[in-house]
Amino acid sequence: MQAYVDLVQQQFACVTSAVVDVAGGYHVSDQPHILSAANGDEFSLRGSARVMLRAAQWYEITTTALPSRRFIVELTGYFYTLLDHNLREMVAFHWHPTANSHVRTPHLHLGPGSQVGRAELQRSHLPTGFVELQQVLRLLIEEFDVTPLRDDWGAILR
């Protein structure tokens, strides 16, 4: 588990100094644990676009029969939300298969900050495939002009 937390922290360090927090611990449990940056609060990112990010993942720790790995971390959900400087949601990548929602597959929301005028698009759960954290961080750097904090960000997010 610590190796996974370290990996996620390294990925976040490409764009922020926010610390990854683990709520619920490092043990096998019937309930998913949560891993978030900045306690699940939004945090500012450097760059000309003045965007913010809020990110969290739900995970379970399970045992394996492998002698080399007694435990594995399985992602069971996520949210990655890009906000404008007024804290309006622009884009949100969600996957919450156990939430109280009729949509259990990975999807995308276009919020008011995206300035999409069609109400159908703003209220829709637009289908996506599974979205990895590093894809979102790369999107921020390459498309939203977020300034990377590490010279090796490309290799880390690959």
Features:
158 residues, 4 helices, eight-stranded antiparallel β-sheet
In short:
This protein has four helices and eight strands.
Structure explained in plain terms:
The chain is an alpha+beta fold. The protein has one domain. Helices cover 20% and strands 31% of the residues. The chain contains four helices and eight strands. Strands 1, 2, 3, 4, 5, 6, 7 and 8 form an eight-stranded antiparallel β-sheet that branches. A hairpin with a 7-residue loop joins β3 and β4 (52-63). The model has no long low-confidence stretch (mean pLDDT 91).
Can you count the helices? 4
Give the number of domains: 1
Give the overall shape, derived from the CA principal axes: globular
The beta-strand count equals 8
SSE pattern, N- to C-terminal: HEEEEEEEHEHH
Uncertain residue ranges:
none
Q: Can you give the mean pLDDT?
A: 91
Give the amount of beta strand, in percent. Answer: 25-35%
Oligomer: single chain
Main sheet makeup: 8 strands, antiparallel
Distance between the termini: 21 Å
Structural class: alpha+beta
How large, in whole angstroms, is the Cα Rg? 16 Å
